[in-house]
Design goal:
The complex is a heterotrimer. Chain A has helices at 5-25, 39-66, 69-100, 109-130, 135-159, 175-217. Chain A is mainly α. In chain A, helix 1 packs antiparallel against helix 6 and helix 3 packs antiparallel against helix 4 (109-130). The longest helix of chain A has 43 residues, at 175-217. The radius of gyration of chain A is 19 Å and the shape is globular. By secondary structure, chain B is an all-alpha fold. Chain B has helices at 11-30, 32-52, 62-88, 91-97, 102-131, 140-165, 171-198, 204-233. The chains are: A mainly alpha, B mainly alpha, C mainly alpha. The A-B interface holds A 64-65, 112-113, 116-117, 119-120, 122-123, 126-127, 130-135, 137-138, 140-142, 144-146, 148-149, 152 and B 157, 160-161, 164-165, 167-170, 173-174, 177-178, 180-182, 184-185, 188, 220-221, 224, 228, 231-232, 235.
């Protein structure tokens, strides 16, 4: 593991511990009140969910067209993180929606396409686990289609009639809410980088184990 | 199967046509996949009819959804069966070893699947219209546009994934796992467009919007598939 | 190759357990959601009385939702870290075991 890993892990832990206090300091939203504070974890998770899908897609493309096993390991790690952060988005969202919209779930564009992107990530993991030989390329092909979904998820809320807030909310945030949000974004981004590095390390160790078994059988 | 010129000459279109012709000829001889797919699609629709009919009446907006679900299920079955046949006679490997443009092989296979699904839809549309009292045949041009663009999108992704899965383990289970999440936008757009066509006063602008979305999805999916077919099929 | 066979049977067993676990957790998760739906039967009213803001005790309390959301995030992150750590230690143990076997093999 690289030298920066442990100190940055410490920093990330401290930032996360501090985040509830910073979030509590931000103003309440006029119509949604206390429950809107879920926003400060829901939105960064959503951004990391989409970012992770993009990382997986790009790594998959590089693996498919250049055959680099390093990119394959990165893609596998990114897919797992897409499932993780997607789960966070898809649970914190409905918890917020129950109070703000009165329903747990709505089949609008943003929610449907996010759920779909999440399922693609799950399918990636299932294929890697149960697909047998050649499943790495199969999953890489799938990841490319999953990445094509990401811009649609982001932009959909601006062009369809939906109850989900539009993307104009973030640029127009008042200062103290903006501060809390960007602090949370920094927390989650750092966490994403650390988790990605850790998960890639696991894949590297697995590759090392496979190489050892192969040399043993020779 | 003798060809007057070798596969390498004559380029993309000719290769695709030869692959398509081969598939059609093999299929026409036994009609195995056509019959089984059609039967499965009809049973699907009947199942929905039995499950959803209350007091002798079908649900009001059920027809559009049921039609597309039947197409999706029948399509999955057809895809699985088509490539299983390839796998059993090892013809896919032979095709890939031929000095032909890989993407052309993909296009040939894709056109075969589209042809098969179109035949199924020719039977399904009147059946659904009859069982669910839905005026599906009132705008035949727009319905055809919706069905064709939806079928192309679904088949584009399906052909790619089925071809990829030919040598994989658990391929029967993995095809729906891979295919359904990706084709959700196609199904949604297809159902919404068909439902819009079933309204008493049809809003053609809405139907045009959904067809445009379907066509955009088709372009994205076919482009992605053509781009990735070669690296995905090489060992 | 022994290890491929071992991995294959392990994976198959894991596969069955995994599917069963997913099925059971889906069923368990649906139960509390379904339980939330039914409300007590209200009395029949003769006329409707408008009010612009619901009194505090009738509004859905926000605090449990907020706390659950944050708790979920932390629990899930912690569970993931545990899972990665466990997998990593298992692989590293296996690597160490193999390397010591090989060293003994070359020196033995």
């Amino acid at each position: 593991m690289p030298k920066w890993f442990l100190p940055l892990t410490g920093l990330c832990a401290v930032m996360f511990a501090a985040s509830p206090f910073i979030i509590a300091n931000a103003d309440y939203e006029a119509t949604m009140g206390l429950v809107q504070k879920i926003f400060y974890y829901h939105l960064p998770s959503a951004w990391i969910f989409l970012l992770s899908a993009i990382v997986c897609g790009i790594a998959s493309a590089r693996f498919l067209f250049r055959g680099s096993p390093r990119q394959d390991r990165l893609a596998y790690a990114a897919a797992e993180l897409t499932v993780l952060f997607g789960a966070i988005v898809l649970v914190t969202g409905p918890l917020w929606a129950r109070k703000a919209w009165g329903v747990w779930w709505q089949w609008d564009v943003r929610l449907t396409s996010s759920l779909m992107g999440w399922m693609v990530a799950w399918a990636y993991l299932l294929v890697r686990k149960y697909g047998g030989p050649g499943s790495d390329k199969l999953a890489a092909g799938l990841a490319l289609f999953g990445m094509a979904n990401v811009p649609f998820v982001y932009v959909s809320v601006n062009y369809w009639r939906t109850i989900h807030p539009a993307t104009t909310v973030v640029p127009t945030l008042p200062v103290d809410m903006g501060l809390a949000l960007w602090f949370s974004v920094a927390c989650f981004l750092l966490l994403f980088v650390l988790l990605l590095r850790l998960r890639v390390h696991l894949e590297e160790q697995r590759a090392r184990l496979d190489a050892l078994y192969l040399s043993l059988d020779e | 199967m003798p060809a007057r010129r070798s596969l390498g000459e004559g380029g993309f279109g000719r290769t695709a046509w030869l692959v398509l012709r081969k598939d059609l000829m093999v299929e026409v001889r036994s009609l195995e996949i056509a019959y089984t797919t059609l039967f499965f699609a009809i049973s699907c629709v009947l199942f929905f009819a039995f499950a959803l009919v209350k007091e002798g009446k079908a649900p009001e907006d059920g027809a559009a959804g049921i039609l597309w679900i039947a197409i999706a299920f029948a399509g999955t079955l057809a895809l699985g069966r088509t490539f299983e046949r390839e796998r059993q006679s090892e013809t896919l490997r032979a095709l890939l070893m031929a000095p032909a443009d890989r993407p052309a092989i993909y296009v040939g296979k894709l056109l075969g699947i589209i042809a098969l699904l179109s035949v199924a839809e020719l039977v399904l549309v009147p059946l659904v219209a009859f069982l669910f009292q839905a005026p599906l045949l009132s705008h035949p041009f727009w319905l055809s546009a919706v069905l064709i663009s939806g079928t192309v999108g679904f088949s584009a992704v399906g052909t790619l994934f089925s071809a990829m899965l030919v040598r994989a383990r658990s391929r029967d289970v993995l095809l729906p796992v891979l295919l359904y999440p990706i084709t959700v936008p196609v199904i949604i757009a297809g159902v919404r467009a068909t439902a819009a066509l079933l309204e008493p006063d049809v809003e053609l602008s809405l139907v045009r919007f959904w067809v445009a979305l379907l066509l955009a999805l088709d372009v994205v999916f076919v482009t992605l598939a053509l781009w990735t077919f070669e690296p995905l099929m090489t060992d | 190759m022994r290890f491929l066979l071992r991995r294959a049977t392990e994976t198959r067993r894991h596969g069955v357990c995994f599917v069963r676990a997913v099925g059971i957790s889906v069923l368990l998760l649906c139960a509390p959601l379904a339980a939330q739906q039914p409300q007590p039967q209200p009395q029949q009213q003769d006329e409707f009385v408008p009010v612009s803001q619901l009194p505090a005790q009738d509004q859905l309390p926000a605090a449990p939702l907020l706390v659950s959301a944050y708790a979920f995030v932390w629990i899930v992150l912690f569970a993931y870290l545990t899972s990665v750590a466990r997998r990593l230690s298992r692989v590293q143990r296996e690597v160490a075991r193999l390397e010591s076997d090989m060293k003994r093999g070359t020196h033995g």
